[in-house]
Amino acid sequence: MSQAVRAEMVASVHSIIAAVGDRVVPGEPIMILESMKMEIPVCADAPGTITEISVQPGDVVREGDLLVLLA
């Protein structure tokens, strides 16, 4: 079963730290979002392997948008 990591606010994707195939643990940063000149780390909520990254640097995301899928 896949675990979705979703955006918690409107922001732009500043950088992506992890890659498809990477194993992550809870609390590990996956990417950095930027909103109102603040950098907000997006961290894994559960352990797993990244199976999909749905955004690219420079993309604007809205609250609830899919960022990453973990398996």
Description:
The protein is mainly β and 71 residues long. It has one domain: RNA polymerase II/Efflux pump adaptor protein, barrel-sandwich hybrid domain (OB fold (Dihydrolipoamide Acetyltransferase, E2P), Beta Barrel). Helices cover 0% and strands 54% of the residues. β4 (29-35) and β5 form a beta hairpin. It is globular and about 30 Å long.
Overall pLDDT confidence = 96
| Number of structurally distinct domains | 1
Quaternary structure state of the chains depicted: single chain
Q: How much of the polypeptide forms β-strand, as a percent range?
A: over 45%
CATH topology: OB fold (Dihydrolipoamide Acetyltransferase, E2P)
Could you describe the largest sheet, including whether it forms a barrel? 4 strands, antiparallel
Number of helices: 0
Distance between the termini: 6 Å
Q: Helix/strand-derived class? A: mainly beta
pLDDT below 50 for ≥5 consecutive residues: which ranges?
none
Sheet with the most strands: spatial strand order: 1-8-6-3
Which architecture would the CATH scheme give at its second level?
Beta Barrel
Radius of gyration: 11 Å
Q: Into which percent range does the helicity of residues fall? A: under 10%
CATH class: Mainly Beta
Element order, helices and strands? EEEEEEEE
Number of strands: 8
The CATH H-level superfamily is RNA polymerase II/Efflux pump adaptor protein, barrel-sandwich hybrid domain
Morphology: globular
